[in-house]
Amino acid sequence: MRTLPDSLRLPRSPRLPVLLTVLAFLAGVGYRLGLMLFDAPPTNSDEATMGLAALHISRGQEFPVWFYGQSYMGTLEAWLAAPLFAVAGPSTFVLRLPTLAMYALFVLLIWRLTLRLTGDHWFALLVVGLLALGSDRIVKNQLIAGGGYPEMNVAGAALALLAYDLAVGRPGRRLPRATAWGLLAGLMVWVDPLVLPYVAGTGLVLIAFGWRELRGRAGGLLTLGALVGAAPLLVDSLVTSRNPLTAVLTASGAEQPAGWLDRLYGGLVLGPALGMGFCDPGRCAGWQLWWAVALPVLLAAATLTAWHTLRHPLTSPTPAGTATAASGAAGPGAAAGGGAAARVGAAVTLALVGAAVATIAAYTVSSAAGRTPVESSRYLSCLLISVPVLLWPVWRATRRRRLPTGVAADHRLTRQLAAAVRVAAVLVLTAALGTAIVATAGAVGRVPAVHADEGRHTALVAALREQGVRHVYGTYWTCNRLTFASGEDVICAVVDDELRPGHDRYRPYRTAVHAAVGAAWVAPDGSPLAARLDQRLDSLDRFTVDGWHVYLPHG
User: Fold this and answer.
1) Which of 305, 394, 509, 534 has its CA 20 to 30 A from that of 246?
2) 378-432, pLDDT tens digit by residue?
3) Strands (E), 437-498
């Protein structure tokens, strides 16, 4: 049996940090499972649309390639949930089981990637602990099956890990690794373009360090995997002559007006703090925006550290697992040992930093950053993939006892500067953990209200069934949620606040409601639609369920 050379072996795992990492991992999964058991984070009609797609697949009724009502954003989440629906029946909880599994796999992959790049088990514990926490925005991105977000992070982490192993020359399963990289890259092209900077960055690492291998069978299998992964998109484009890129650009709102000051604030200040889990539900207090100042510094530090290692791999710090590395001196790729491995680790670091910068830049120039920065901060969810390389220079600074040789000639000044840098690094790590803990507590504090709201919605579905109501009109955020919650016992067609036809993602529902005799109306209490329908009580009967009004035509 072929064994790894010493230069590619990770140091023996210390028991204490590994045990603590397991506990942090279980806490993160348990926290999210607990949220799901109490109906948090709150569901919505977009998630219900994915649930309806899964329901249709499980019944063999339809096999959608795209999220209903549009020609982009693949339905991978629906395909993963469909077998579970066939066994356990449709529900939001069952719909989210695959997304919970994807979160767990994401953390495991990031842990492994962190050890590949740094070899420091204590630092890997810090990364896992930070990812175990979850603000309102973070758990929404990770758990809500609304299309794209839960799978992007796990795919990005897997692509980076596969790229590192292939580029560094780890023996064994090389052809399966190349095939897996291609398959994941193709899947992400189909699922959501937001992760493409990470696909491109890790792909460049493969080309730079493995181009000779890619000219052979590995390259052929990688290409085949990519074609298989992107097959739903490619086949649909050939059959319908639709260009999914055009649909994505149209949906991005690029033509909608938004001031550049608003875009810069949303993209560079508010967005990263929200998207990376440092803010309370739906808002960011001023003190929680410290990340907007720290992030550019961390990006620059990670870039400089990796660039130095890439240019001078033989003079990079000693491999992790030695006495020097234990004190925090290891550099990117040092865990693998050797100059070549150090260069690959540095290249992966630069790829993850570059992908983070591209993600932020693309979001900042979009109108969404200026128009809806709180909700659209979900577009920055991929930044979590870059957390290990962003925090690694800070972690090293907390462990370093002196500045690099040549920074200061005076020994006392050197020690003072080193102490100041160490204090600043400790403050950054403390602020990151502390702010994330506060934001997580804010998300937990919303759970009772979310659970109560779901209870009211369950009561609405039961009341409609009891009254024999099977066809209704409602708002966009009412309809598909109601239809999915009832298992299509109640079919809903969308109207706006003036009772005009709205955006029905699944057109057969509108046809069914239009054809029904005596269709009812459903409106949230206090909504503009409810006020409009209250003006027609001469022809409608109204009954109320806690939080909802149902309007039935006379007779």
Assistant:
1) 509
2) 999 999 999 999 999 999 998 765 555 444 445 666 677 778 888 999 999 999 9
3) 471-474, 491-494
> In a 3-state reduction of DSSP, which class is residue 1?
coil
Amino acid sitting at position 431: A
| Alpha-helix residue ranges (DSSP H) falling in 89-148 | 92-118, 121-132, 136-143
Which of 92, 133, 56 has the alpha carbon at shortest distance from 488?
56
For residues 515 and 526, give the distance between their C-alpha atoms in angstroms, rounded to a whole number. Answer: 29
Residue 182 one-letter amino acid: G
> CB atoms < 10 A from the CB of 118, how many?
29
Distance CA 519, CA 542 (A): 13
Q: Categorise residue 147: left if φ over 0, alpha if ψ from -120 to 50, beta otherwise.
A: left
Asked whether the beta carbons of 52 and 484 are under 8 A apart, the reply is: yes
Beta-sheet pairing, 540-545 with 471-474: unpaired
Phi-psi map region of 253: left, alpha, beta (phi>0 left; psi -120 to 50 alpha):
left
How far, in whole angstroms, is CA 225 from its chain's centroid?
23
**Residue segments in the chain with a per-residue pLDDT below the cut of 70:** 1-13, 244-256, 314-338, 400-414, 555
Dihedral sign, Cα of residue 460, residue 79, residue 88, residue 511: positive
The token duo for 35 is 């949220």
What amino acid occupies position 527? Answer: S
Q: Which amino acid is at 17?
A: P
Beta strands in 280-413 (DSSP E): none
Q: CA 166, CA 521: separation in Å to the nearest integer? A: 58
pTM of the model: 0.90
Identity of the amino acid at 457: H
- Helix (H) / strand (E) containing 315: none
pLDDT tens per residue across span 543-552: 999 999 999 9
Residue type, 290: W
Q: Is 70 left (phi over 0), alpha (psi -120 to 50) or beta?
A: beta
Residue 186 in 3-state DSSP? helix
How far apart are the two ends of the chain, measured CA to CA in Å?
80
Instruction: Identify whether the C-beta of residue 151 lies closer than 8 Å to the C-beta of residue 291.
Output: no
SS3 489: coil
Q: CA torsion sign, 214 to 217 to 220 to 224? A: negative
The DSSP line for 395-450 is HHHHH-SSPPTTS-SSHHHHHHHHHHHHHHHHHHHHHHHHHHHHHHHHHHHTHHHH
As beta bridge partners, residue 66 has: 74
Q: What is the pLDDT of residues 289-325, one digit of tens each?
A: 998 899 999 999 999 999 988 887 766 554 343 333 3
